[in-house]
């Protein structure tokens, strides 16, 4: 009887032990499977890392090859440039020889042709001056004789900027354009509002579709004319009230070098006088001398261009008044600004007899100077200050 009871007890015990052993075998098989998967992943990662190293090495070799070929291209470019320059020199020399032999073999004919050409050139220049006098108001007969006084209206804004009135409108609004790159105009009802300490709170903000470059912009007859930032020589005509772009143009030859050496941010300086809209800039082909262009402000077309004898070196600003360009010079470190070069497009002024005109009672530099033909005053921006200069004029001789 006891033996029978022991059998009944051993059967569940053995069954439990065998079940536990079976589970342990299954767990061991699972762990073995997981280990094999991890080993496979590690091998794949190792292969991936090796492939990346191989690709990096191939890319380095490719980069070295490209750089070496680029260096070779630069050498070829220098050789071709040298050959072209040599060829041009030989062509110029041959051309001089041809001209010389031609003058020796037929000197009389050359003299006659030369005289005819001179007569033709003088005739064309006379006709051109007649056309210019018709285009420009020849009755504009005053010239700058001195700068009488200055008034610092306010000191606000950056070192570079521009402020002005619209000489083509009857209103007394003041416009402030802060900075050499910006796209927001501040419009004030009058100069008293502008002079208030919290002036920006009372200003009407006008946002431009494209920012300006430099400080050479101008407002005339309700339009802002400015050099578009990021462009070589694009001038934008913007309607301030309607807040849209009315027109645009490209100014030939401009934008490659600064108009004034001491104001490098201004590549194109726009100006207004009694005759309308002008553009002032410099060109490498003129040796850095200033070029002035008359622009039709309605059609945005170039009417005429003049190469002046005024150099842009040590110049900080310029303005047009009564068909005449006045260039303002200074020292690189700042000092007393002075008008030292004058150019009249109609040759109505003997520029060699004009004395140097100094700006009174002020040491520093100007970011911009604009002439207001309506008030016969200069609106200037000097080291963050907004300044008005009153002028003394006299008849042209």
Automatic annotation (TrEMBL):
A single GO BP: signal transduction
Signal peptide per UniProt: 1-21
Subcellular location: Secreted
One GO CC annotation: extracellular space
Disulfide bonds: 140-322
InterPro entries: Olfac-like_dom, Olfactomedin-like_domain
Keywords from the named record: Disulfide bond, Secreted, Signal
Olfactomedin-like domain location: 139-395
Protein name: OLFL1 protein
Recorded name of the encoding gene: Olfml1
């Amino acid at each position: 009887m006891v033996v029978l009871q022991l059998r009944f007890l051993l059967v569940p015990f053995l069954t439990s032990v065998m079940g536990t052993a079976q589970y342990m075998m299954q767990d061991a098989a699972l762990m073995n499977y997981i280990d094999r998967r991890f080993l496979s992943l590690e091998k794949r990662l190792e292969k991936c890392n090796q492939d990346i190293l191989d690709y990096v090495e191939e890319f380095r070799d490719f980069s070295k090859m490209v750089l070496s070929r680029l260096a070779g291209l630069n050498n070829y470019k220098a050789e071709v440039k040298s050959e072209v320059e040599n060829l041009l020199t030989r062509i110029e020399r041959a051309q001089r020889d041809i001209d010389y032999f031609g003058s020796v073999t037929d000197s009389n004919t050359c003299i006659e042709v030369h005289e005819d050409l001179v007569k033709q050139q003088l005739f064309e220049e006379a006709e051109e001056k007649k056309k210019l006098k018709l285009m420009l108001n020849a009755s504009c007969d005053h010239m700058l004789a001195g700068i009488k006084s200055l008034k610092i209206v306010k000191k606000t804004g950056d070192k570079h900027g521009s402020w002005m009135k619209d000489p083509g409108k009857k209103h007394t609004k003041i416009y402030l354009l802060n900075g050499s790159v910006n796209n927001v105009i501040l419009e004030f009802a009058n100069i008293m509002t502008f002079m208030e300490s919290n002036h920006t709170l009372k200003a009407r903000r006008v946002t431009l579709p494209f920012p300006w470059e430099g400080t050479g912009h101008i407002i005339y007859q309700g339009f802002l004319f400015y050099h578009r930032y990021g462009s070589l020589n694009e001038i934008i005509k913007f309607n301030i009230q309607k807040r849209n772009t009315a027109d645009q143009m490209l100014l030939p030859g401009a934008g490659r070098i600064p108009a004034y050496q001491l104001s490098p941010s201004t590549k194109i300086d726009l100006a207004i006088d009694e005759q309308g809209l002008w553009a002032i800039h410099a060109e490498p082909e003129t040796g850095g001398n200033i070029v002035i262009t008359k622009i039709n402000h309605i059609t945005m077309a170039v009417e005429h261009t003049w190469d002046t004898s005024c150099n842009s070196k040590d110049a900080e600003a310029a303005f047009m008044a009564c068909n005449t360009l006045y260039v303002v010079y200074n020292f690189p470190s700042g000092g007393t600004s002075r008008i030292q070069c004058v150019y009249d497009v109609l040759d109505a002024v003997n520029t060699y007899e004009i004395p140097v005109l100094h700006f009174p009672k002020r040491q520093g530099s100007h970011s911009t100077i604009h002439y207001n033909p309506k008030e016969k005053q200069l609106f200037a921006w000097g080291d963050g200050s907004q300044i008005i200069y009153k002028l003394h004029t006299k008849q042209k001789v």
